[in-house]
């Protein structure tokens, strides 16, 4: 791939990427030294983790005491001694907490049933922040302990750290805001606007693509589909290479998104959930029903991971040699299950992946020929074998990169920051704002909404509220440097001008099925408020007078600007103010000033 250039900064920086997964989490880092080619390092040492080296992840679990304090995190929370202490002292576990940050979706009721509730008096943001704080401390300790002169190295960068946080493909501004808030609570950054930029976001799909590119898995040619199969979600993204650009002696390879990414709540935890439903029914009349939590944990840690063939029986080893109940297939401390029954636990997840891959292929006009399977769930041989057989007739090749399950997202997130292989993305939804429009008696749609008309006191005009004005259409290809601009105007009286109350423009995205959404009340539930843009004008641009009423009002023309330079939406407003300059000759000159405030 593209050779990474030496860092051209003037002082040492540190990049830290944190991949907080539903079931497992990890971290990577990169020291940026002036004149040195950046090299990505993976954190491979965590407290209480048994194996050191290739396995670079810890369980995403936290134990809280009855007083709300953190008692154990990560691998520490799974030690046998800790488990006994947690039971004795009535500690409260929190796992799969990441899914509580997910977007609201009325079609995902099954997710609510599968994930455990948060601990009392703990929000998802607070739990997430506690875990980020732990990951950050582990990363700090690892850098200090594994780097020559580690303490002095850390002291040279601790005030100059950039953070990369990864999230599922389907998460957007609302979830990113919650994650940034968690970073503030964790002490990674302060709450100042200047510090907000030190946290950047990347989708798990795009991070995985960068990992594959850096490990030589993707070569120039046709497009690829990245399937990131994790604990909670399955994320799919499709990319194709753009035309190579010359950079002195080297060719610069870049990729563009071919179609909208997809995100499904069908990760590996839902295989366990299906198994639990089956076992609950199977053990109804057995005294082993009281052990179902332990049996499910044993299934999750061993049977689910090693399952390979639906034509052979599977076993859950959970008890002692004398444990027996032949009516439910328990003998010598293990339960015998039909391979076909276990395959049914996997079926919903595998079927959703199959359907999504075909959907991505069709949307990309069959420009893809390889599918990369990454993420923790990708380690399952039954999943890989089934998908391989399914994809053979389609001409798509399926492969798993080396170390795909351990560090793909964390390492890929740093590559995203350093390499920027992806230069354009597809807009997920329609983005715009709500406006009022003058009533037009010749427009049938206006006539239908005549009862909603309001008289604007400023101009005495009849206006129809609730029109969604699109600034960026769904499925539009968006380059990193592209801005989407839309002009608007509003009116204020002189008294309103002197009050100096800022104008707020709310940005929405439309997530419904209408190709060209128009009226807010036609599909109310699918308009999601994303953010507010503040317009604080010093001097209005134009003075108008209504000759019928004698009222004087001020007209302000402004533009709303949306950009998706990376993977985070940014919104701005721009307008022209009239400013009076007094020269030495005491003459007044009116000049126009173009204003773009920070968002």
TrEMBL record:
PANTHER family: ALPHA KINASE/ELONGATION FACTOR 2 KINASE (PTHR14187), HEAT SHOCK 70 KDA PROTEIN 12A (PTHR14187:SF5). This is Actin-like ATPase domain-containing protein. InterPro entries: ATPase_NBD. SUPFAM superfamilies: Actin-like ATPase domain. It comes from Dendrothele bispora (strain CBS 962.96).
